[in-house]
Write a structure and sequence with these properties.
The protein is an alpha/beta fold. 48% of the residues lie in helices and 13% in strands. Helix 3 runs parallel beside helix 7 (209-233) and helix 4 (106-125) crosses helix 5. The longest helix is centred in the C-terminal third of the chain and has 25 residues, at 209-233. It is globular and about 65 Å long.
Length: 265
């Protein structure tokens, strides 16, 4: 594998260049804006392209060194996409609600994760069969609540080495906690965001589903490239592993391969 590639045209087609209404903007984003169209700020993609590539390289370097990446996106349109991208590359995610102290008070969070594991084991083993229906319902609800909040990080085993965030306004607490602990932050910054505290800012739309999907696919690919680099450096044989790495195949290449296979058949 190699670091995923992308073009400015792909970003335009995904709507990455559309900012917010000019009434809803953060003056600190002025240097990242190209202009205004129909009352909407247009983000300067000539800056976004190299900044996105730099952020992907940073994520790749972290995973190549054995580090952990935490995907964060709790807004409705990002929730499922963030979870799928993190699972696809074997990383961790928060997609329901950021709990205060999730990083800065890791000891308490670890206790909650331990409780979630206990409930998982009890439900899987049938140990709750002897309880009343009401007691089983209470424990099931407790498990569901913990799973929504912590299910994406229950296997993380410690603090992440880098965060990838969609919408820094909604996830301001995550940015603050990461900054306090010195954890690098990769984040999408829309025209209404504050770029302060973001280690690797990526100017772009943080609301459009296609844009969010594009960011997550690229970051997931960067993680997989880093993992492969770590395995190769350690003398491992990627082709001999039980689960082969997932390759991101461009649509044009995929179509050509399909046509060739059909012709041979």
């Amino acid at each position: 594998m190699a670091l995923p590639t992308f073009t400015m045209r792909q970003l335009v087609e995904a709507g990455v260049h559309f900012g917010h209404n000019t009434r809803r903007w953060n003056p600190k984003m002025a240097s990242y804006l190209f202009g205004v169209r129909n009352g909407i700020h247009i983000i300067d993609l000539q800056q976004s392209v190299p900044m996105l590539h730099r952020a992907m390289q940073a994520v790749r370097d972290v995973t190549a060194g054995g580090g952990r990446v935490l995907f964060v996106g709790t807004k409705h349109q990002a929730s499922e996409v963030v979870a799928e991208a993190a699972k696809r590359c074997g990383q961790y995610f928060v997609n329901h609600r950021w709990l205060g102290g999730m990083l800065t008070n890791w000891k308490t969070i670890s206790n909650s994760i331990r409780r979630l594991r206990e409930l998982d084991e009890q439900l899987a083993s049938g140990a709750l069969a002897g309880l009343t229906k009401k007691e089983q319902l209470v424990l099931s609800r407790e498990k569901e609540k913990l799973d929504r909040a912590l299910g994406g990080i229950k296997d993380m085993g410690g603090l992440p080495d880098i965060l990838f965030i969609i919408d820094t306004n909604k996830e301001a607490l995550a940015v603050q906690e990461a900054n306090k602990l010195g954890i690098p932050v990769v984040a999408i910054i829309d025209s209404n965001c504050d770029p302060a505290g973001i280690t690797y800012p990526i100017p772009g739309n943080d609301d459009a589903i296609r844009a969010i999907q594009t960011y997550c696919d690229l970051m997931s690919g960067a993680v997989l490239d880093g993992i492969q680099a770590e395995i190769t450096r350690g003398g491992g044989d990627v082709g001999a592993s039980a689960e082969a790495p997932v390759e991101q195949i461009p649509e044009v290449v995929a179509e050509a391969a399909a046509e060739e296979a059909a012709a041979q058949a």
